[in-house]
Amino acid sequence: MSDLKNTGIAAQEGKFIIKEKPYPTPKYNEAIIKVNAVSLNRGEVRRDVNSKEEIFPGWDLSGEVIQAAEDGSGPKNNKRVVGFLSTGAWSQYVAVATNALAELPDDVSDEDASTLPVAGLTALLTLLKGEQLIGKRVLITGSTGGVGVFAIQLAKLSGAYVVALVRNEADVDFIKDFGADEVLVNSVENAEPFDLILDSVGGDELNELVKITKPFGKIISFGNSFGKPVSAFDISRLYSSSVTIYGFILFNELKHLPASEGLSKLVNLLHEKKLKTLIEKKDDWKNIQTTADNLIDRKYKGKAVLYVK
């Protein structure tokens, strides 16, 4: 297998190029996947453009098993799958642990599947921190992004009253189409309190979110798109009302819960037409530079997907 060719997207100091890389040598519990599509996450692209050393990035992928795992676990040869890697997914061929793969039915496309790993799992697992959501008030910030669009739908499926926070008035009707019961524009001022808040904005807005969290409520912080630390924080509000702020990093969560479990649930929801994706950009992976730059500049709602040739 070592003589076989492989290429991948390399990143360094803001530049992305396709170049040769080693063909994967799988561990006993890993399958080799021929990648058909990958999706980009703004957080990973921001990290990639700041890398001083050359790296082969990528978290989300979908494709076909061309060599099943040696230990007999996971999908078999020729099965279509969605998968998750901590790095290197933007490649023609990758080795993926079978506990990070889920098999795809025929009616779930490669591009839709490729959006599920980071955005879908983050939405699913952050909502689980709220436990029983029937009748609960849930606020989702950054709601037009990949995680936000999935979180709105999953929270609604869980029986919550879902409120979405958007930047622009023009996004109100669009985000209601994904199931939001109510949409706030650029401010949470005067909002009724929430049982659970999923926050990807961070910065000074976190102070405002604490003020509108019910006693014993939870704020799940999974991003900082604001790009700056909180300038001041009233810690007394936390212990006076028993509000919990939970710092969520998907990679840490998946140390305790196999990605395959959550991916299988999400794939089944797509199959049953209970969940839909939002892909604003689909392109050939040779156009990675333009796609990555536009993603950083927030020119896409939802997800951007590249087809691997």
UniProtKB/TrEMBL annotation:
Gene3D superfamilies per the record?
Answer: Medium-chain alcohol dehydrogenases, catalytic domain, NAD(P)-binding Rossmann-like Domain
Which domain of life does the protein's organism represent? Answer: Eukaryota
Keywords noted in UniProt:
NADP, Oxidoreductase
The record's listing under InterPro entries reads: ADH-like_C, ADH-like_N, ER, GroES-like_sf, NAD(P)-bd_dom_sf
Q: Does the keyword Transcription apply?
A: no
Task: Name a GO molecular-function annotation.
Answer: oxidoreductase activity, acting on NAD(P)H
Which residue ranges does the record assign to the Enoyl reductase (ER) domain?
Answer: 14-306
The protein's name in its UniProt record: Enoyl reductase (ER) domain-containing protein
Q: Which organism is it from?
A: Adineta steineri
Q: What is the lineage of its organism?
A: Eukaryota, Metazoa, Spiralia, Gnathifera, Rotifera
